[in-house]
Amino acid sequence: MGTAPTLYTVRRLAALSGVSIRTLHHYDAMGLLVPSQRSEKRYRLYDRNDLLRLQQILFYSALGYPLREIVRVLDDPEFDLAASLRSHREQLEKEQGRLSVLLHTIERTLNDIEKGTTMVTDKELYDGFTPEQASAYKGEAEMRWGKERVAESERRVRALTKEQWRAYKERSDALHRRLALLMTKDPADAEVQRAVEEHRNSIEFFYDVTEEIYRGLAAMYVEDPRFTATYDAYAPGLAQFLSRAMLVYCKNGMQVR
């Protein structure tokens, strides 16, 4: 004999969900959340499916949908609960990312105000380039990687203090010098691969680096004369050596072996 499903009175559902009794009554009256059952005394009784529907109502309300629109969506015969939840998750993750950036910006600005430090300016994002070069490089980056990734990179850098940005550039310079000293080794050598992993982590300072992106960078370092010149300034042939080592790293599943 199976266990009887749990039923909730309007008062219990209000306590469970945080939605007021008055609001639940309103949802019932407008056909948004009609209880599946009624007691002998005509009290509202809500089952598990009703609870899931209320969850959807709260999700859609949080995303700014009008109640009448929520009725239309949930009553659609083709409504898919799992697909709806995945969509909510995707939208909430985007909002979470946006809020995270805003919070970080607030923290950096407070630090700027309270400690007198100075945040990185737009101009400092492209230190060392002429204005024409900076504009061209940004445009090319947007074409290659997309405006969203370039904007995210700029946001991360702009949130840094000048001291933090200077420290990053010093670490990057030291890494490139170390890679130049490793050029006598095989690109697959463990020490070289550890340096490559540090190189990849340094790029993730700006944006998330997938294997596809890292392979693209490896190609760009030897195909674009400007990038080749940047690395070869540390040691002739460094761009080619680093590119080969990066491809080994990708082949190994972005891990040091």
State the order of secondary-structure elements, H for helix, E for strand: EHHEEHHHHHHHHHH
**Residues in helices, as a percent range:** 55-70%
Q: What strand line-up does the widest sheet have? A: 1-3-2
Note poorly predicted spans.
Answer: 127-134
Described by the principal axes of the CA atoms, the overall outline is elongated
Number of strands: 3
CATH homology superfamily of the largest domain? Antibiotic binding domain of TipA-like multidrug resistance regulators
Average residue pLDDT:
80
CATH C-level class of the largest domain is Mainly Alpha
Rg, rounded, reads 28 Å
CATH-defined topology of the largest domain: Globin-like
- Sketch the major β-sheet: 3 strands, antiparallel
Number of helices: 12
CATH architectural group of the largest domain: Orthogonal Bundle
Q: Give the N-terminus to C-terminus distance in angstroms.
A: 57 Å
Class from helix and strand fractions: mainly alpha
The count of domains is 3
